[in-house]
Amino acid sequence: MTQDQINAPTEKQLLRHRKEKAQFLLDAGISLYPNDFRRSAEIGDVLTAHGDKSEEALAQEALALAVCGRIMAHRSFGKATFFHIQDATGRVQVYAQRDDLGADNYSIFKKFEIGDIVGVAGTLFRTKTGELTVKSSEVRLLSKSMRPLPEKYHGLKDVETRYRQRYVDLLVNDRAREIFRKRTAIVQFIRKFLNERHFLEVETPMMQPIAGGATAKPFRTHHNALDMDLFLRIAPELYLKRLLVGGFDRVYEINRNFRNEGIDTRHNPEFTMIEFYWAYATFVDLMDLTQELFRDLAQAVNGTHLVEYQGEVIDLQDGWVRMPFHAALEKIGGVSPEVYRDYGKCKDLAMKLGETVQKNEKLGKLQAKLFDNLVEPKLIQPHFIYHYPTDISPLSRKNDQNPEITDRFELFICGQEMANAFSELNDPYDQKARFEEQVREKAAGDDEAHAMDEDYIRALEYGMPPAAGQGIGIDRLVMLLTDSPSIREVILFPLLRPEIAG
């Protein structure tokens, strides 16, 4: 610890100092939180419109303007002060001089601190160093900051504090703001991409009487008026496919899903997905569409189809691989058919890899555990892994040539799943039989097994067109395109343990 750190005031002392400054302003008749200052422009617009103008042009225009923002830095020279203010669009320097503001107003202004939000009226000029600056004729306090910005006393370096106090992280971290601006751009592009292909955006229930559409453990809640349990949805799939029955041939939804599972760098219990369904298409059509979407999206938001992620360069134009599930086990995972086709050998290898194996677990589930350990981490460039075992694909259409596999794929990039898609099962009798098998697995202790959904079976009995559907994790997609190692970096307010008082 340096001597400056030893001598630095404590947080308690800084908070007391802020309260004293606030009381001084109140005693001087200054409102701490007024709402009568009107800005004429956002800072970003000012920089865009006037950032390239010469000092002579600015002096000739003598443009009067009013901007607002948070004080982020200041340098005082007695009778004059330079400070920077920041709004959502940018940052600009302001020059405040006692002769321009008046002695009394300048004295009040000197009590303003880093973190305070102010309104500034004045004209533009350039300093001797060439920086575009607002020469102020008025500086008004708009919101008093009762806490100093973090770097004022210790910096916002602790990762959990950044996530817990995201509002502060966004104030002081340019990269954090850029991530979430890019996240918005990503979602907007996906909407545009699907809208142009005549997909209809819809909304389906977030609270559902049956947790369906995926194999995951749900959150449970209770509706008092109806005296019934409901589940926060784990996926919108079964409702979206009901819309295919209803005659909408192309639908999509971008919204939240909830899964009562662990938290790590790739998982948050509340996360965002897009699911879309396309009548008269197959899972192969979705591979083509997905490849086009990812390539065009990267080009739109990053300016290139080459994506750098954690030291790897991912080629979203020419780097795509398509490989069957069992071939991937052999070629990438190094597991021979003699092992993955033999229940006992497959089980032994899964347990050797540290996996827990339930009694009477299906062979397809054991193979999936081998895949998760031996294949998935090695899939760096984009890989479509297709023809998954039927045992682990309760909503997918069986392959016409081999009923033990389904017309399903998952997309992997940088060792993590990015999307899940399949040609849809639209045979009501096959679907009911698979639901019944899932019910038996749930009774045997599988908390993630799919429940029976009689209404969905009834919908299929009316006839659902042949179709394909896909889900893409928005959070992981944002991670990829912003080179973020943790899902918490791309969710504004990720779930955290309760803060410990003290």
Into which percent range does the helicity of residues fall?
25-40%
What CATH architecture of the largest domain do you see?
2-Layer Sandwich
Q: Could you give the distance between the termini? A: 23 Å
Low-confidence spans: none
Q: What does the largest sheet look like?
A: 8 strands, mixed
> Total number of helical segments?
18
Radius of gyration: 29 Å
Structural class by SSE content: alpha+beta
Tell me the count of domains.
2
Strand order of the largest sheet: 6-10-11-18-17-16-15-14
- The CATH C-level name of the largest domain is Alpha Beta
In what range is the share of β-strand residues? 15-25%
Number of strands: 18
**Overall average residue pLDDT:** 94
Classified in CATH, the superfamily of the largest domain is Bira Bifunctional Protein, Domain 2
- Shape descriptor: elongated
Question: CATH topology of the largest domain, anyone?
Answer: BirA Bifunctional Protein, domain 2
Briefly characterize the structure.
The chain is α+β, with helices and mostly antiparallel strands and 502 residues long.
List the helices and strands and how they pair.
Elements: H1 3-7, H2 11-27, H3 43-50, H4 55-61, E1 64-76, E2 80-87, E3 90-97, H5 98-101, H6 103-109, E4 117-126, E5 132-143, H7 159-164, H8 166-172, H9 174-196, E6 200-201, E7 207-208, E8 219-223, E9 228-232, H10 237-245, E10 250-258, E11 270-279, H11 283-302, E12 306-309, E13 312-315, E14 321-324, H12 325-331, H13 337-340, H14 343-352, H15 363-374, E15 383-386, E16 408-413, E17 416-423, H16 428-443, H17 454-461, E18 467-473, H18 474-482
Parallel strand pairs: 3-5, 6-10, 14-15
Antiparallel strand pairs: 1-2, 1-4, 2-3, 4-5, 7-9, 8-9, 10-11, 11-18, 12-13, 15-16, 16-17, 17-18
